[in-house]
Write a structure and sequence with these properties.
The protein is of the alpha+beta class. Among the domains are: about 5-145, 2-Layer Sandwich (Herpes Virus-1); about 170-260, no CATH class. The protein is built from 17 helices and 23 strands. Strands 10, 15, 18, 19, 20, 21, 22 and 23 form an eight-stranded mixed β-sheet that branches. A five-stranded antiparallel β-sheet has the order 2-1-3-4-5, with helices on both faces. Strand 21 (about 465-470) and strand 22 form a beta hairpin. Helix 2 (about 20-30) runs parallel beside helix 5 (about 105-120) and helix 8 crosses helix 12 (about 245-260). It is globular and about 90 Å long. The relative contact order is 0.09. The model is unreliable at about 120-150, about 260-270, about 315-320 and about 415-435 (pLDDT under 50).
Length: about 500
């Protein structure tokens, strides 16, 4: 990339100004409005091969999109003598006469102004998903002498945690959070600022990220984090073994509350704010209760941080045999989103016919979080003759490395057949045809042993396909097969394609 511009771009600017670049960058690079994002989703295809991949470029002289990898933008430049194009991923100008990307301070100011405009209208998580560094900035980062290079087989970010006495449940949750990609990027970017750091759990987690990525390999002690959790969640205080799932939800809750000072509530969902915790972990669950007399539907939407999945046999439904216990994560999700007949003993007053009637209830995914967490309910509690008994379910439940949640979405699961659905639109007008609901596994927490003498460990994906087992202070390499054949208690999946808008 040239740092001194080029005569061909200067001649173009002298003749037509910067408005063509401004329009292309606004609509097809930053997409600073809803209209622009819709237009980008519909229009951004190579005019030759109709793909949106392969480094799409827009001609600066006329309305033409062409992919670089297959050479279609090059063919257009040669045929039409239009030698300037805009890279729609980064917003850089490619001059085919110079054979290079060219750097222009005036156009860089335009690009930065539009990124700033986008940042004002979006939350951090949305902006992060929209932003990618320009090639100039990427080049500066690569050449920076103090930049830490993450090479293949690098173990940066891996660090053991000392067990302070039955605190393995804390250690495995911390390992999963530290290796949550967007959470890591947020804290390593030093986004959190707080007037009372000594009392703030978010500040302590920020400090932990710095420690993990400092390059120091000595095991860490989590005494301050434990103290802060105990201060805010009294029933978890002490050195008795606790449930990792309960600790995880309590930790998210405290982190969320400590972020609330800078929280902005979303208008259509007062339970969902724009703090980094909710942006990453919060999804929306839709509950549809259908009256069996008039088919009236009562719908409620509730936020969730995780999905707890039952491992026992499904309850029988009218006219069907009782299914056996699930054997896979997909079985569990199928059961979770299956319509359930509530029975004659649980009649609900229908808001449509205003009488108490039998009904069915169905849970579906209205909105998916960036990080989807599945809690396999392995610890069963039951009462016999006023005595509480506990049992661990050690059944093997298979789970995939790649997971597609599309079959469990509300618009697919609850049988809506109206014209909007057939056209790929949800009831509120949301375009479902561009949504991508594929996830990749990046952490698994296991409970080994019995209820009385159990021990928590974690598998974490450090980068790409490199997996490690975290057993308190001991970190060892693991194979994907080891991960997928483990018992599985908490499963952490990250969305493969992040959308914004």
């Amino acid at each position: 990339m040239s740092d001194h511009g080029c005569i061909h771009l200067n001649n173009f600017k002298a003749a037509k100004g910067i408005q063509p670049y401004k329009v292309i960058h606004s609509f097809f690079v930053t997409s600073t409005s809803t209209e622009a994002r819709v237009r980008k989703a519909v229009s951004c295809l190579c005019h030759t091969c109709k793909t949106y991949k392969d480094r799409l470029h827009s001609c600066l002289h006329c309305i033409f999109f062409g992919c670089y990898v297959k050479g279609h933008i090059q063919e257009h430049a040669k045929t039409k003598k239009h030698f300037l194009a805009v890279d729609l991923c980064y917003g850089n100008i490619l001059c085919f006469q110079c054979g290079d990307y060219v750097y222009d301070r005036e156009l860089l100011k335009v690009a930065k102004a539009q990124w700033s405009e986008l940042a004002k209208s979006l939350s951090f998580g949305e902006f992060y998903r929209a932003w990618e560094p320009t090639q100039t900035e990427a080049e500066l980062l690569r050449n920076h002498p103090r930049r830490r290079r993450v090479i293949e087989n690098s173990t940066i970010g891996l660090r053991g945690l000392i067990n302070l006495g039955n605190t393995c449940f804390v250690n495995c949750i911390v390992q999963a959070l530290i290796h949550t990609p967007l959470l890591r990027d947020y804290f390593l970017a030093d986004r959190h600022h707080c007037p009372q750091p000594s009392l703030c759990l978010v500040c302590e987690v920020s400090h932990l990220f710095q420690e993990f990525y400092s390059g120091n390999k000595a095991p860490l002690t989590l005494h301050k984090l434990l103290h802060l959790i105990w201060t805010h969640v009294r029933h978890l205080a002490g050195y008795e073994q606790q449930d990792a799932h309960e600790f995880f939800i309590a930790t998210l809750d405290v982190l969320h509350k400590h972020c609330e000072a800078t929280t902005i509530l979303v208008k259509d969902n007062p339970h969902h704010c724009k703090c980094i915790i909710d942006q990453i972990f919060t999804g929306c669950l839709q509950s549809d209760v259908v009256c069996q007399a008039c088919n009236g539907v009562s719908t409620t939407i509730d936020p969730f941080w995780d999905i707890s999945l039952d491992l026992t046999s499904a309850a029988s439904t009218s006219g069907s045999n009782t299914p056996g216990p699930p054997t896979s994560l997909l079985d569990c999700l199928e059961k979770f989103t299956r319509a359930e007949h509530l029975g004659s003993s649980a009649k609900i007053k229908c808001s449509n016919c205003e009488t108490y009637q039998e009904s069915t209830k169905q849970l579906t995914m209205k909105q998916l979080p960036i990080v989807a967490i599945f809690h396999l309910k392995r610890f069963e509690h039951f009462i016999i003759q006023d005595k509480i008994f506990k049992k661990k379910i050690s059944t093997f439940i298979s789970f995939p490395e790649q997971l597609d949640m599309t079959p469990f979405m509300s618009h697919r699961r609850n049988g809506n057949n109206n014209s909007a659905m057939l056209n790929g639109l949800s009831k509120n007008g949301e375009d479902m045809s561009f949504s991508d609901n594929r996830y990749s596994l990046f952490a698994v927490i296991n409970h080994e042993g019995s209820l009385e003498t159990g021990h928590y460990t974690a598998f974490i994906r450090q980068q790409r396909d490199q997996w490690f087992k975290c057993n308190d202070h001991l970190i060892t390499r693991a194979k994907l097969k080891d991960v997928l054949t483990s018992e599985g208690y908490l499963l952490f999946y990250h969305k493969q394609i992040l959308e914004y808008g």
